[in-house]
Write a structure and sequence with these properties.
The strands form three sheets. Strands 3-7-6-5 form a four-stranded mixed sheet. Strands 8-9-10-11 form a four-stranded mixed sheet, with helices on one face. Strands 1-2-4 form a three-stranded antiparallel sheet. The chain contains 13 helices and eleven strands. The chain has two domains: about 190 residues, no CATH class; about 140 residues, no CATH class. The relative contact order is 0.06. By secondary structure, it is α/β, with parallel strands linked by helices. α8 packs parallel to α11. The protein is elongated, with a radius of gyration of 36 Å.
């Protein structure tokens, strides 16, 4: 198979027998051949004719080694690969079966793509016009292609390493206008660890060091551990134990030692978190008791205020009317009673405003507490269900009661103050 690239156009010449399935995909990659049927394209191939296709919008990974080599900077490269996966597309490549060129699926799942995007979302990318949304293809695909059919494809391996290091880094910077030199930064507590590489530096990025790190982060070995936590472990371990020279000298024999370092750090963190978990549960129980007490105290204060208003109204009625020997007639106007009810209305409004202020303050406290628990103590939302507003019925009862009392008071004022 002979191929050469001109931007995103692939000039192809096939020397072997080709399956109908592969011809169908090749035909779909070429907008100028869509009118031809499979037989017509097979005739061209059987004659050894060269033809052009445009595979950028298809799920066919073909001649990727040559394409990566033809790209002078990453912007054009990622633009080509931007739409090759996703939307239910299963990536495929060319394999050989019984001496016939045929299509075969690439080892890939949508979870790999989602995990890579989640890791990349937190990376600061300062590479010319390159946007993170354009980097959609995870390194797993290029790692697969780098060893496809037993061939060594150094440019596919380079891209697998490049993409892996992007996801591990805190910041990626293009240090020249031509986007040929890159600085990958890993932030630690003490300093900034920097790794510098040149675009298509297949000599320095050919040993699968960064992909081994990335694969440990995304592996299913510890499903309960968040990938971002595992990435932090990798960052700290690399910052303390690896320099640029040691990364370049990495080989397969060193891989088990590398993974062992990651596993040991994770084991220490998990064992420490077991104790932290039980301490957290104690904290949550104490918070629940505190919040329950505040709810009960708030309810009691409002009820006591309502009862105090009723007692004050009775005492006022007694002082204004009965102590002075007046005869109270509910059907007759009485300005003394009206003035008393106006004073009661002011007190009721004050109680209503006070209860609303307490309710808002309580909700604000709950939100701050949930944020602290999530950000600082890393407590999940499921474990904080008790912090949700669980006094809706209580608040509704208080507000309805106060509203009814205020409405009756206003009605009483209008009734007794009438001319």
């Amino acid at each position: 198979m002979k191929c050469s690239w001109s931007t995103s156009e692939l000039n192809l010449q096939l020397d072997d027998q080709v399956s109908d399935d592969l011809i169908m995909h090749l035909n779909g990659c070429n907008p100028f051949c869509n009118g031809e049927n499979i037989t017509a394209l097979r005739t061209h191939i059987d004659r050894g004719d060269a033809f052009s296709i445009y595979p950028s919008a298809s799920n066919l990974f073909i001649c990727d080694e040559q394409f990566i080599q033809s790209c002078t900077h990453p912007v054009a490269l990622f633009k080509y690969y931007e739409k090759k996966i996703g939307n239910g597309k299963i990536p495929i490549t060319i394999g050989k079966r019984d001496d016939i060129l045929d299509i075969e699926p690439v080892t890939y799942s949508d979870d790999l793509g989602h995990t890579y995007q989640e890791l990349l979302d937190t990376v600061i990318l300062d590479v010319g016009s390159l946007k993170k949304a354009a980097v959609t293809t995870p390194p797993d695909i290029f790692y697969y292609l780098s060893n496809h059919n037993g061939n060594s494809n150094p440019f596919c391996r380079f891209l697998s390493e490049f993409l892996s290091l992007m996801a591990i880094s805190d910041r990626v910077i293009a240090s020249d206008e031509n986007l040929n030199k890159f600085e990958f930064q890993i932030f630690t507590k003490d300093n900034v660890k920097k790794f510098r590489f040149t675009w298509q530096d297949v000599e320095s990025m050919n040993n699968n060091f960064w992909y081994s790190c990335y694969k440990w982060i995304t592996s299913d070995g510890q499903k309960s551990v968040d990938a971002k936590l595992k990435r932090n472990i990798v960052r700290e371990a690399i910052a303390k134990h690896y320099s640029e020279d040691s990364v370049k000298s990495f080989d397969e024999e060193s891989k088990s030692e590398l993974i062992q370092i990651f596993d040991n750090i994770l084991r220490l963190i998990v064992s420490g978190r077991t104790t932290e978990y039980f301490e957290t549960q104690k904290t949550l129980k104490a918070e629940y008791i505190d919040i329950y007490s505040k709810n009960f105290e708030s309810f009691s204060n409002v009820v006591n205020a309502i009862l105090a208003l009723i007692v004050a109204l009775v005492a006022g009625m007694y002082g204004v009317l009965f102590a002075q020997g007046e005869v109270f007639d509910v059907f007759s106007p009485n300005k003394s009673v009206g003035i008393l009810l106006i004073l009661m209305l002011v007190a009721e409004i004050f109680v209503l405003i006070s209860s609303i202020a307490k309710f808002i303050s309580h909700n604000s406290y709950i939100k701050k507490l949930r944020k602290i628990n999530s950000d600082k103590l890393m407590i999940s939302d499921e474990d904080q269900e008790y912090l949700k507003n669980n006094r809706t019925g209580l608040v509704t009862f208080v507000y309805i009661t106060l509203t009814v009392i205020i409405a009756l008071t206003i009605g009483g004022i209008c009734w007794f103050m009438r001319s």
